[in-house]
Design brief:
The structure is a single chain. By secondary structure, this protein is mainly α. The chain has one domain. Helix content is 79%, strand content 0%. Helix 3 crosses helix 13, helix 6 crosses helix 11 and helix 7 packs across helix 8. The radius of gyration is 21 Å and the shape is globular. The relative contact order is 0.17.
Amino acid sequence: MNVWEKNRVSKKSHDKKLWIGIGISLFFLFLLFRKIDIHKLLAAFKEMNCYYLWPAVLSTFISYFFRAVRWRYLLLPLKKTRLGNLFPATIIGYMANNILPARLGEFVRAFVLGEKECISTSAVFASLVIDRLFDGFTVLLILLFTFFTVKLPGGMESVQHGLVVGGYITLTIYIFVVVFLVILKQRTMQTINLIGGLLKPFPAKVAEKVIPLLGSFIEGVRLSSKPAELFALLCSSLVIWAFAIWPVDLLLRSFGIILPITASMFIMVFLVFAVMVPAAPGYVGTYHAACVYGLMAFNIQKEKALSVALMIHGVSFFPVIIVGLFYLWKKDVSLSEMRNKSTQEESLLE
């Protein structure tokens, strides 16, 4: 298959994912807004203390800054990159994730930094896979800590028990993935041969796609073995999520909702799982539903919970979109051009 055909197939795939995501978003919006008292929703916004907005926005950008710091440590085995390039690329990538379908922001982020630092996009993208694994590990720590410490109101014991069980299942899956990647890195050929044997019952084209993908991925994965740099990766991950959780607590307080910080951690875990669900650009509907139902677990009225969800989404997404577009303007690159280039890079990596 030539590049043009790959781009055409990739575009069709993105369009299909987009329409599926829009359908899922509309479904959740219907669930959220049915039986909502608009007057109560507007009343909740009127009671909001806007003083908390600025520190919430600042905290969000601090979280993104430390994402750039962590990314720098992940790229050290390849090249010593500049934060002056990493931070804009991070913001542009997350901006693209918020407004483009199919999580193209990951490819945008890799493409932008790759061009600026003269590193291959595939190598940069491999570092982002490890970046996501660090996120997954940190979120699981938050999940386990929260589910064992958060106190839900009476009558929610079965929900809390279900969440703990779900946490254990997720932890098991995650450990399996990490162990597999470690073995794949240390025993590459043996592992690939084993995977090839396991794929024999499937059509040949499955193995033809999976095996080269594993090989190219593991070739691009490089992680520092220096204890100080590994410690910095772990510390930056904790800082990233601390400053991602704090805005949730601030915005709860802006609506007069005073809950333990574990409640904000609980809601953040819901939000993390929400962005994994296919949805329209910006995670519209799924993001809000996760926040609303997370708050309702603390007996927060649905209208007030929805108003909080709308503000948390707004603070998390719109400032990043504005700053990301500013960085694109500075680079004199249009969003459509960036989308086309990232789609091409994605098709080449597939």
